[in-house]
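Encoded backbone
================
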Amino acid sequence: MGYGRIKKAKRPSSGEWIQKIMNSFSHLYCCFNANTENYRNGICVIRTPEGEPIDVELAEFLCNAYLEKNKVSTSPDEEYSATHTEDYFNIVLEDCDEMDENYETINQTSLNNMDTILNHPIFYGSKSINDLKQCIQAIEPIEV
């Protein structure tokens, strides 16, 4: 399976647990580096203060971002194809159940999932948190 289109929840998530998660995300940092095969936009999320701090608005988006699951297949003659499934899921919150009870310790899988979202083609060319927030404005809403 690969990932396709990206959407965001119409209504921000609410509740004490999600507020704790968003608070923990706002203690992370975004680095904007050269594009690579793994980081197509050159964006990575880290714990150490070596980049721009993730603010509350970006943390909220990360908690409300949904990626489409694509069905990827290869034909007998090695031709690759991806099919949109219309099946969206939140890869960031999916692994938050592995965080500690106060939602303070963010695991590497959650960081990698944030990287996946921020390296989506919609964020291509972003070199700052403000650039990311401009791109977020263009993302279509999804009913969850």
Notes: The mean pLDDT is 84. The two ends are 21 Å apart (CA to CA). Residues 2-142 form one domain. Residues 108-118 form the longest helix (11 residues).
